[in-house]
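Hi R.,

Here are the chain sequences for the assembly we discussed:
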Amino acid sequence: MAKGAGLLLPRLTGVPLIHRVVADDRLAVMLAKDLVDLDIAVPGDWKRADSDPTSFTRLTLERLIKAHGGSAIRRRFLLVASISNTPCEWAERDETSPNRLFLTVEPSDASCGCVTFGATLELLEKVHPQLPVTFFNVFLGALNRYIRTYDYRDAEERAETLREWASQEADADQYEIPDVEGSIPPCMRLEALNECELAHLKDTINDPLAKNLVDAVLAFDHLSAQAERPELDDDIGQQLSDCNPALPCLLAVFAEGDAIAGCFDEEAEGMMEVTPEPNLIIPFDPTDTESVHGAFQVFGVVCQTVAAVSRVIDLMPGNDQWIISR
Amino acid sequence: MDHFKVTAMQAYVNIGANHEFRLNEAVLVYRGGDNGAFASLHQVKQAENGVPYLAPGENLTTAFVRTLAQGLGAQVKPEIFPDNVLARTPDMLVWWSRPQRRIMFFGGTN
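And here is the predicted structure of the full complex:
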């Protein structure tokens, strides 16, 4: 049969889809080698990465996240992990430390997870009056080691700032400031139990859900303490001097749409006016295998901690919402 | 809130001054001898097996051609040159240096 009229589109089989311009891959090569030497990376990924050290490191990072609770993390959080020469996107590279890289974690697309404590605190109050504030403090303390949570203390500070601004206006009484004080349950005003008291109380809890919650929060507190947040030196502080504070990864409220959520919504409008600094910054030196090992060990603990938080929130009553991915 | 699928945690690596160029579009130019020529613009898509293919053609707009020309360097951004640079175009750089003795090496013709 004769060919019909028309044009044939050329095939692209075998055409390279990506070209890379590599101006300086010395650190990327060293990092890739370290990751293999430390058994963090899988040598087989080298082929998947088209022999590109940067892609190889990215695949390793993805593999690490998956192995450290990736599916639990994504239920409640949208985060991004990056390895770069600078601690944040707009910081200038520090030429005096040419071998320094940064592993950072921050919210993706300026998103924020949410947790409601109200029903959980009510449940725990039935067990012991000081248990709610203890649970809250352990939960937030363990998470705040690595990533920022916006809670009633941030909201109180914001409300105070708003009050100060409003007081300078002629029509000060026309401003409606969120009643943060009124949103905080009275049980939160009590003193928290210390570690020994909590350990003693834990064994006496009969309510299965309350016991599960206390066990889970203590487990993730223990997990979170397995690593230490790296100290940042003055040079890195200088690189971040023009940044806004880190964006919160989690909003902790007592009830849906309470005054804390109101303060957060109001404050969130200005959080991106200047580039925020990442939640977690782990500086490391790819020419030093120990340094790479330390950085990835901290990162693994952070992933596990965030995954554990996500699982604790799953247990907490009243938190069926705000699930990002099932 | 809508449920949508996301990766566990996005991962990016950006070390050194490396850049990645991904094949996005292709321009096909058809010539017809004395009857002129025309060009079509095609998005490049990937089949499930990863093999790239051309999507149906679209008309080439003058805006696209202008953007393409800019990308090729037809429009040079203002730059500050060192003292010894005399002129620069997208295809040419002219500089001078003071007269001086230099050691010169000549390769063999064999």
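The helical segments of chain B are 62-71. Confidence is low (pLDDT under 50) at residues 1-6 of chain B.

Let me know if anything looks off.

Best,
T.
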